[in-house]
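ok trying this again, last paste got cut off
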Amino acid sequence: MGLTKLGWNAARDEQFAPYLAKGFIPARVAVEDKHFYRVWTVDAELTAQITGKLIHEARGDHAKLPKVGDWVAIKLVPNEEKAAIQAVLPRSTQITRKTSGRNTAAQILATNIETVFLVTAADPTFNAARLERMLVMGRESGARPVVLLNKIDLCDDLDAKLAEATQAAGDALVLAVCALTGRGIKKLSAQIKKGETVAFIGTSGVGKSSLINQLYGEDLMPTIEVRTQDSKGRHTTSWREMIFLPNGGVVIDTPGMREFHLWGASEGVKDSFPEIEALAAGCRFRDCTHTQEKECAVLAAVAAGTFPRERHDSYVKLQREMNYLRESEKQAGWQTRRKSDRAAHRVFNKGD
């Protein structure tokens, strides 16, 4: 399998030059399992482990360690199908979310992707607000977001559901598909070019793995039927995995997520609500929050019924979440610096 089929390009040649001079070879991370990985080189699949030096240089920041989709420099272990990961090349794009719980930290789901498919179901579980959050995450990644409205066989009014998804999607492409019948799969496949990498994200049970199986042409990914009483699914993908399609495209499947915790997505919010950005030009105040200010063009449009109140509510909620996250980051940074200062003070006193 050539490097170009793995997603290599001319820009990577320049980035890798210093490592080539040291005798390392390029590889791409396909599977991540803590500090152990499966990587692809130009002609082999290997088990790899990161070096202690790389762990030390990351200084506890897990985002700096290899993730699925990363290009890495490796050193082969003689006479074994193993390698040591020496360095991670710069990422062109990355899908990131905040880790679950109270911790303020980034979790990278996939890197170096051209298109991110945001999968939602056309059944009763469809939620426009959740789709808007997925779009924010997709746009913030730097990749091209495409909405996949799956399970259209379970939809009584497809035109209405498409209209609802299209309104939430803004300028992003929306495709109606059905993993069960194969409807729309050709249009989906046309969005994946040779040498490009795509990722599928969505909640459990929306059919990501089933869509990938359709693209691949056989049951490659495990699937589990959703519960009929509430249309919810169970996790069938336990880790992020890279899959090579027969047409030359690369797919990254991610675990189904119960919640979409955004991470540093201020620009993604703006890009996901272009109507608000356009209306904001008419606001009296440049830093208008569009919540309570006088002479706010956005609030005027909501009151006049020319801008959907639901879209405005989603925008305000996401902006508040971003503000809270930024304050949490500042607080976490202050606490880290304080601990560091205390540690340095103890060392200094001990030295005396």
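PB: full thing came through this time. Residues 309-351 form the longest helix (43 residues).
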